[in-house]
Amino acid sequence: MKLSTLAALFLLHLSSVRGQTCEDFAPPAEIHGRKFFSSYSGDYLAIKGISYYPRPNEGDLTVTNSIDFFTEEYRSIWERDIEEFKDLGVNAIRIYAVDPGKNHDGFMCALKAAGIYVIVGLAAECFNCAITSDAPPLCYPAELKRRGEFIIQQFAKYENVLAFSAGNEVSLHRTSHSTENAPCQKKFIRDMRAYVQRCSDSMRKIPIGVIKADVERENKALYYNCRSDPDDELENADFIGINSYLHCDGAATGIDELVGYSKLLEDYESFGMTVPVLWTEFGCLNESFEEVEGYETQRNFLQVEALYSKTYREEFAGGFVFEYSTEKSMAQDESPYPFDTFGPDNWGVGHFEPENCDDVTTPCEYERFPEWYNLAEKYAAVDTSDEPNKLFYEREWNDPVPPTCPDEFPPLDSFAWPSELVPQLPQECPVEMPVFCAGVPLECNVVTLPPVSSAPVSCRWIVTLTLGTAIGQALLALLV
Ligand SMILES: *[C@@H]1O[C@H](CO)[C@@H](O)[C@H](O)[C@H]1NC(C)=O
User: Fold this and answer.
1) Residue among 88, 93, 81 nearest 47 (CA)
2) 453 lies in a domain?
3) Could you identify the atom of ligand 1 that is nearest to the CA of residue 247?
4) Separation between Cα atoms, residue 236 and residue 225, nearest integer Å
5) InterPro entries annotated for this entry (predicted)?
6) Lateral strand order in the sheet of 35-38
7) Whole-number Å distance between alpha carbons of 48 and 94
8) What CATH number corresponds to the domain at position 366?
9) Ligand 1 site, residue 251, Cβ cutoff 6 A
10) Is 235 part of any domain?
11) Which residues span the domain enclosing 246?
């Protein structure tokens, strides 16, 4: 009886993953040159993403920009949304702020089971949780270093972390070059890369990058890609994200008519970047888009056709549409609920209903806008099968020399950084702890296997893990 139950459960498990390989479960990504690749197959990985911050329409969960929705407490919210991500056909999401003191296993595992990667932000809206607008070196608080390392330590075990972002749109506040806060951002990136390197025995080399507004384009691109000390290999960001809201004329019918994007391409072609560049937010709004089924100005996402075309792929590694859901508290002044009129902050490809939902007493439900289907169609049509795999780029991009730093930024070592002056205990490295996700085959789950010398894993434990947490626990109950 027990054996047959076991066999039945095992078959159930096999059939649920039949035809799928680890490639379908967001295996670790790696960078060669300006592109991402799957470390499992070596295939090119086009990042087709969406920005995610599920702010409900009303209530306590609307008040800040940095609620960590990605914990067990909010499981009903992200379970609802991951189903939408699957239907939308994205393979990546971008989240902005997390609380590293909380457990994210459930969320990250559910995304992995859906084959979805995540860019995790290291900054947040709290005291000393981000680069400030002070002049360097004070714009980089020592506490931020600790926070960043703590987040990396907690998230390193998830194979589907695509990268960490060391900041979102820093360097907007100051324009005078002598007080520009960009050196703080750069030093923070360097510190985080140093942590990843120091911990290389127990974690993979997860990229640390930076996300910036698409302003002062050349300076910012070169500055974060360059090394003010040419011998310091940790100084450059591992990737660069640009939040780019350029030309989006509803009358444009071909990608050549996206004037601003053609210019963006031309500019980046001239920079000689040696790291991937992602459009970490894109998809601008314009009154010229068509009305569809009673909803004004529905975006057609012609940019997707541009971004994943052969020419653009040489410079850009993919992107994240902004954003999953319209945030009522931001949008409602100019585009009242149900957001069927044009408004400059009606950014979602869908919204939440009912109008007063708060995800505490009244659950929100996701309602797609007509443009949701436009985006799904564009993402589904992306074809990058003509990209060579990583072996080609490993040869092509053998230790490329980063561009020279723009003159106006002082070298990093010309500042006395609080992160070095304030004595701190070194942050511990991540513990070699595999995470086994329900719904993901065992062999696709292992992050870092414990050292061979560690205690042997019992047979029953293996079965439990293979079957995934939920079924496994039921089975364990049967066996004991
Ligand atoms: C919005 O659309 C108008 C009219 O089609 C166009 O002239 C304008 O450039 C567009 N705005 C942006 C930011 O692309």
Assistant:
1) 93
2) no
3) 14
4) 5
5) GH, Glucanosyltransferase
6) 29-32, 35-38, 44-45
7) 11
8) 3.20.20.80
9) yes
10) yes
11) 24-435
Amino acid identity, residue 312? Y
Instruction: Return the SS3 of 228.
Output: coil
Q: Do residues 379 and 300 lie in contact, with contact meaning Cβ atoms separated by under 8 Å?
A: no
pTM above 0.85, yes or no: yes
Residue 37 forms part of a structural domain: yes
Q: How far is the CA of 288 from the centre of ligand 1 (A)?
A: 7
Cα of 258 from ligand 1 centre, angstroms: 10
For ligand 1, atom 7, the nearest C-alpha belongs to 249
**Residue 266 C-alpha to ligand 1 middle, in angstroms?**
20
- Cα-to-centroid distance, 343 and ligand 1 (Å): 15
pLDDT tens for the 480 residues of the chain, in order: 344 444 444 444 444 455 899 999 999 999 999 999 999 999 999 999 999 999 999 999 999 999 999 999 999 999 999 999 999 999 999 999 999 999 999 999 999 999 999 999 999 999 999 999 888 999 999 999 999 999 999 999 999 999 999 998 886 555 555 558 899 999 999 999 999 999 999 999 999 999 999 988 999 999 999 999 999 999 999 999 999 999 999 999 999 999 999 999 999 999 999 999 999 999 999 999 999 999 999 999 999 999 999 999 999 999 999 999 999 999 999 999 999 999 999 999 999 999 999 999 999 999 999 999 999 999 999 999 999 999 998 888 877 899 999 988 899 999 999 999 877 788 899 987 778 899 999 889 875 544 444 333 332 333 333 333 444 334 333 333
Indicate if ligand 1 lies below 6 Å from the C-beta of 249.
yes
In a domain, 392, yes or no: yes
